[in-house]
Amino acid sequence: MKADTVQLVHIFGTDRRHVVPVFQRPYVWDEERNWAPLWSDVRAAAEEVETEMSGVPDAYTATPRTHFLGAIVLERMPPAPGRILAMNVIDGQQRLTTLQVLLAACWVAAREHGAENAEGLLKLLLNNTEQLIHKQHPYERYKVWPSLPDRDAFKALFAAKLPAERPGEHRLIAARRYFDDELRAWLAETTEPVERADALVIALRERLGLVEIQLEGHDDAQVIFETLNDRGTRLRASDLVKNTLFRLAEQQGEDVTDLHQKYWVPLEAARWGEEVTTGRFRRARIDLLLSYWLSIRTGLEVPVEQLFADFRRWLGEKKASAAEVLADLAHHGHAMQRMESLPGSDPTGRLLQVLDLLSTTTPVPILLHLQAKDGISAKQRAIAAGAIESFIVRRFVCGLTTKDYNRLFLSVLQNLRKVDDTVAGEQLRDQLAGQTADSRYWPEDGEFATGLLQRNLYRLLRGPRLRVLLGGLEAQLRGEKSEMGFSPAQAAKLSVEHLLPQQWEQHYPLPTEVPAEKARERRDEVIHMLGNLTLTTTKLNSSISNGPWSAKRVALTNHAVLLLTAASVLQASPGVPDGKIPNWSGGWTEDHVWMRSLVLANLANTAWPRPS
């Protein structure tokens, strides 16, 4: 490679095109981090020139200061007869594009103030010589030709007057407005705007420097791009993956414009750039897609932090066709979008809500694989989702570890890739049921019931896990025939209410037929049991929390809509033996709690079944 320190006039002052590959990321620079610092440098350079031109003693120096704007990496494209020389922009597209926006704003400002010399010189930095532009390629007039999503907005930059500002307009147009405003204010500060415009042009042409790195025949453009961008930059892992794939496609003789339009443009929709929370981190959805997809392909855990390195290693070992990889990625992207739009009434949609509540994503690659395989039926997907949810819920109720989940679910995933699609869900269920290690086994009904009847369940599960449990019981009570289902997302918005309050002393006297110490001990044992818990709105919870049962029962009767309350608190469940507790809703005692706990434990075994 050849590296030189050059002035801006070297970059834009000759007939040369700087072509950004169609597959590079769109324009992302903004005011705070990029436009404002650039304008600050340009203004400072122009004011230095202005001072030197003013004739102030000792203002002129033979070695004026150069303001460096960073580095660009270029690769000469094969020459074509009758065409303007083109340089492939390996790195620096954001910088070069922004400089063209600034120059366009400067050109407009010079025109508005009648600075004819400045206007003419600036036009030379914006357009290649008219006579050299190929008739069939009019875009060759531009010194920079940006990536595909930015081209329409880029062409609009060169209008003398922009249209009225609109919400959500392209970032390039916003950049032009920013520079227009700054230039207008700066030129208004002087009584000699023409002379200031001339000083600005001199500063732009001669006082702004860049490091231009031109690659030579033996240089690997992709390796250099990765070295410059893989660490400490705002490029996402997906940007690096994308660049690698399209450069490979070029080497394999593919039409990269067609591949980009067909397979990658859908992945540039706004939703894929949104950041979503996974565990303790926020990640762009496109990076998560790539992480899940690579886990499916490799059978290994792929943290987003290692995504690009793992992808590059896999691609090197696989020797895959770039077009096939892009097609597969696009297919999984469509499957992931479809999967994430599933309602809570769908078993997979419900499981995704459970995983979101629990802040875990370990089974998601399995769910994506099941969605992406067209030969797997909705029934098999439902069996798989139900098995995974039951496995997770039973284990956390029993206080079992989650530490081996990554390896377990990856092994399940790799097995799924080998089995017949028509029985994929059943195979997954049976594989989970066959686990015997302490860190992997699926608790059976008896152990699950024991876990549910723990006397400190509220404190052991707390927050999200408790809402998953109570919400699942509500959904089971409603059943498939109910007009309105109940999803984990709904449970997340509700509060957990103790029916027999934690501060019970004022309104819930101890029974007198047993010794006081024993009665208190028994009372304390049931406070945090499953049978003493329900879900209510936050407002209802705060209004009835420690009140007497008579008032609490009326409030629940008037406002509670969940069957978890209406069908097992305000009236006896069908599972309660006749006459066991006469006048069921007349009070709320330790006997009520124990009986309701047993009923709900039996219900839970039905809600989260496990094969024998």
Automatic annotation (TrEMBL):
Domain GmrSD restriction endonucleases C-terminal, first and last residues per copy: 442-597
Annotated GmrSD restriction endonucleases N-terminal domain residues: 12-246
Listed InterPro entries: GmrSD_C (IPR011089), GmrSD_N (IPR004919)
Highest taxon of source: Bacteria
Official protein name in the record: DUF262 domain-containing protein
Organism of derivation: Micromonospora lupini str. Lupac 08
